[in-house]
Design brief:
The chain is α+β, with helices and mostly antiparallel strands. Helix 1 crosses helix 4 and helix 2 packs across helix 7. A nine-stranded antiparallel β-sheet has the order 1-3-4-9-8-7-6-5-2, with helices on both faces. The longest helix has 19 residues.
Length: 228
């Protein structure tokens, strides 16, 4: 599985999965119909440069480029297709291959310790807004689900967290996973502003979660400032 791959490939695979789940999952509806703001133009090289500047302040951080992410799309798609999700509506819908879903976006990521920070620049804010709002009615039904892969099952529970940032839309969840023997938690924060989708994922627990939540919001704010 992913854990047995070289670290950069593992991070790239996880980032691709994060992008796809962000565009195909069932987020909570936004509180406003207002636009996310005018689009910001960034090509792959410009995004890589911005992420390199951001990563310069993160000890041991590694930037994963658009090209590296795209090279992992076939393997990530195969991995996702091998995953059995129950209820099935909480999984990934392959109405189009991942490459087609992401071909008009520019992507990048930063891996810093146990944190994975993802950035996707969409062609316009309307596309991002429609994906953010997609399948909102089903979000409550996916607060609990299970995943089976390679014969092993793991149950997950999503607990929404209160989080604010300078982005137009921000949401956070603590995802608790258990195989019946061991339990782990991960903080996931997503934010959307203009035509930019940001994500922060980090291992967490009850004691460190408030600190990690504040740090994730600070990361979002810093990236938005970096990309403007």
């Amino acid at each position: 599985m992913l854990a047995h791959r070289p670290q950069i490939l593992r991070a790239a695979s996880l980032a691709v999965v994060a992008f796809v789940m962000a565009s195909c999952s069932a987020p909570a509806p936004s509180d406003t119909n207002d636009s996310l703001g005018p689009a910001i133009e960034r090509n792959a090289q410009q995004l890589e440069e911005a992420l390199n500047q951001f990563a310069g302040d993160q000890p041991g951080a590694t930037v994963i480029t658009d090209a590296q992410l795209r090279s992992m799309i076939p393997k990530a798609q195969q991995w996702l297709e091998d995953v059995e999700v129950n209820p099935s509506k909480c999984g990934i819908t392959f109405a189009a291959p991942i490459a087609e879903q992401l071909q008009n976006s520019v992507m990048g990521a930063v891996e810093a310790g146990d944190r994975l920070i993802t950035v996707a620049v969409y062609p316009d804010s309307e596309t991002l807004k429609s994906q953010w709002d997609a399948q909102a009615a089903a979000s409550a039904d996916c607060s609990r689900y299970s995943v089976k892969v390679d014969g092993e099952s793991r149950a997950f529970h999503l607990a929404k967290q209160s989080v604010q940032s300078t982005a137009k839309l921000t949401e956070g969840y603590v995802v608790t996973g258990s195989d019946g023997k061991k339990t782990s938690q991960q903080l996931v924060v997503r934010a959307a502003t203009a035509n930019i989708l940001l994500g922060v994922q980090q291992d967490t627990n009850g004691a460190t979660m408030p600190e990690h939540l504040a740090a994730a919001a600070e990361t979002v704010d810093k990236l938005i400032e970096q990309l403007n």
